[in-house]
Amino acid sequence: MDKFANVSVLKKANVYFNGKVTSRTILFAGGEKKTLGIILPGQYEFATSDKEHMELLAGKLEVLLPDSEEWLTVETGQTFEIPAHSNFKIVAKEVSDYCCSYLKE
Q: Which of 31, 47, 64, 73 is the most buried (most CB within 10 A)?
């Protein structure tokens, strides 16, 4: 899906790591929530509340998922999931554009 119709967008940006990671929250009529964001090159660690489905729209990431010792390479068009209530690490090799879907279990 290249665009979202009939959604609400929160005006205030989500800004992390001194502006090196930013996103905007998209709310759907049925209660679904997504964020659209940009990750600048660097290494970051995130914590989740909900299960997350990440789609990389552009760029290249190395991802260390919970309970894994091997880094996963994620490139444009690929996805990965992170369990709820966990931490994961990302190394952005280049400016990366993403869409994150928050999944209620």
A: 64
